[in-house]
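In line with agreed milestones, the collection of sequences with tokenised folds has grown. A representative record is reproduced below.
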Amino acid sequence: MNHVEHFTGTYEAQAPISHGSDEDFGMEIRLRTLEMAVRENGDVYHEDVPVISGNSLRGQLRDLLARDFLERLSTDDDPLEVSDTLSNALYAGGSLERTAGAGKLNRRLIHDIREYIPPLSLLGTAIEDQMIEGRLDVGQLLPIATETNGYTDRGGDHSVFEFVERTFYTRQDDREGGRQEGEDAQQMKYDVQVLVPGTRLHHDLTLRSGHTELEAACLGHAFGLFAERPRLGGMSSRGHGVVEFEYDGGLPAGNPYTEWFADNRDAIRKFVVDLDERVA
């Protein structure tokens, strides 16, 4: 499609959301923040605002689509196993291989991957010495608050810091070895900064110009898989990150993708097997 499609939506925390900073704060896990220019009454100041990285959501969508893709190509009698190289391309975005001299663009390879593996065309990957640019931009998730009104246009009327709290957990050192006889197990306490339940977040998705209807349907299917267990951030095993979400006007339907897959499964599998033999 020779046009750009934008989707905006809102997420609402149903449980605490923790999304750790890249910085090390010792026994405290702080929220990831982004320095933003805040305009208020004609003045401009900078504030470190908690955000959820768009890359973390993108990574979840990639994992869900990769697992679903391989499961659809497998049966109980004939499971499909792929090499580490192809698995890395599907689940982690791949890695470029070094080649002697200047690399050449392999248009046929890129075309065939886009045709037979829509998740890689949608989200992008690197395989061999080829970089395949994704067709989807996934924005940061911004709390709807007074500090972010200039970016979300959602009319937040509370400061973002009213949605930030701290909780704590303990970890028991229950190793059998490494302690002296009679020594008690040590209990370690660590603090976690969270966005509280009820926090609402604004989100943007963009399908770039040149995307296909199949890639749009792949996006819709990805969020259908995400909706089965919607989580943001980390510590989901402790109950964190549960969200409800809705995109204004909805997202593309996912069934054209699953119908295409069913109609072309044998050809898709043959291509994947041949590609795996090539890159392994």
Observations:
- The chain has seven helices and twelve strands.
- The longest strand covers residues 5-13.
- The mean pLDDT is 90.
